Amino acid sequence: MIAIYGSPRKGGNSEILLDAFLGPVEPKMKVVKFRLGEMELQPCISCGHCSQYGKCIFNDDIEELFQAIESSDKLVIASPIFFTTVPAQVKSFVDRAQSYWERKRLADKDTRLPAKKGFFLAVGAMKTERYFQNARMVIKSLMNTLDISYTGELFYPGVDAKGAIRDIPGALDQAEAAGAVFAADL
Fold it and tell me: Could you give the CA distance from residue 134 to residue 91 in angstroms, rounded to a whole number?
């Protein structure tokens, strides 16, 4: 399983939530973790290189992440919500998946990756579920591009101050339970 920490803030709410999700997973399967905020990821510059060659012009840490996703059957992404969407670190990763889309478009044969499953965890300061809709669509689009079935999500509104997720009754237990189900779902 690949686990992506999408927050620029280490030890923040989305990280706490993801760690709870991974609690029952790690004894059962190998989990490879990526902290987008600590990786060298260039933003997409819309240069068109991938639309010609099916590969991004940049050679940075994104290649390691994409190779890990290709060799795994599950992906979980945890992110805070900034202004109704994912933060820049996550969006750079999402935008760089354009090379996968272009590779499929350019291919003479079916280039779909083997079936994979994905899960999205998010926290946000606003106290309404509507606040998560844009991020949901961004992550669903990413997973669709990477041939990953979007199989579940947990969203926690009203979570802002560092550690506030711990004050939401049942949140970490729900994340653990979701992680156990996700890990068992072959």
Answer: 12
In a domain, 39, yes or no: yes
- Quick one: pLDDT band at residue 185, thresholds 50, 70, 90? confident
Residue 185 lies in a domain: no
Q: Report how far residue 11's alpha carbon sits from residue 15's, in angstroms, rounded to the nearest whole number.
A: 6
Task: Tell me the CA distances in angstroms from 129 to 97, 140, 152, 156, 178, one per residue in order.
Answer: 27, 16, 15, 8, 19
Of 49 and 114, more confident: 49
How far is residue 91 CA from its own chain's centroid?
A: 10
- What pLDDT is stored for residue 113 in this prediction? 65
168, amino acid identity? I
Which residue range(s) make up the domain with 159? 2-180
The model's pTM is: 0.94
